[in-house]
Specification:
single chain, alpha+beta, 2 domains, five-stranded mixed beta sheet, two-stranded antiparallel ribbon, 4 helices, 7 strands, binds zinc ion
Length: 173
């Protein structure tokens, strides 16, 4: 996710950079994550304003995680805006670096990799679901209950003995 500043002319630099599975795997090794079939891309532009560079872009597309209930793929739509100002390191020293949207230039390159990664990680749900109404896996036979209604009666089998016990106690007292 690096762009050479000498390629950014007066008219700016349009960006359309696919976010690849390899990039996601390298940037987010902790997360089980990949771009979905619809793809993921960084779209936008970089403009030069004086000594600074303004990046206005969106990370758009979809990511694929694993459904927390049924373990099938869960597709997460992503549309995250990015607005960053890249400043030369001398300017950064005088401005201080409190503003997270102000990023020092690295040599002759603009590197948005860290910011794209952070925005992706922030956009991820804690419990990704393949669908809001996902019915999960059967606790007894492991069947995906979205696909087939298995005949296991986990709930009934577990509670029936206690229900019978309760009735006995009631009739004794
Ligand atoms: Zn699911
Ligand atoms: Zn079952």
């Amino acid at each position: 996710m690096r762009f050479k500043i000498n390629e950014i002319g007066a008219e700016g630099l349009p960006l359309h950079v696919p976010v690849t599975a390899e990039w996601v795997a390298a940037a987010c090794p902790e997360a089980e994550l990949r771009p979905g079939p619809g793809g993921l891309a960084l779209d936008g532009r970089i403009d030069k304003t004086g000594e600074d560079y303004l990046l206005r872009a969106h990370v758009r597309g979809e990511l694929e995680m694993t459904c927390a209930r049924c373990l099938e793929p869960a597709r997460i739509p992503i549309d995250v805006p990015l607005a960053l100002t890249f400043v030369s390191s001398e300017a950064d020293k005088t401005d201080g670096d409190d503003d997270p949207d102000v990023v020092p230039l690295k040599g002759n390159e603009i590197d948005v990799g860290d910011e794209v990664r952070d925005e992706i990680l922030l956009a991820l749900p804690l419990n990704p679901l393949c669908q809001e109404a996902c019915r999960g896996l059967c606790e007894v036979c492991g069947a995906n209950r979205n696909l087939s209604a298995c005949t296991c009666k986990a709930g009934v089998a577990a509670t029936a003995p206690f229900a019978a016990l309760g009735k006995l106690k009631l009739s004794n007292t």
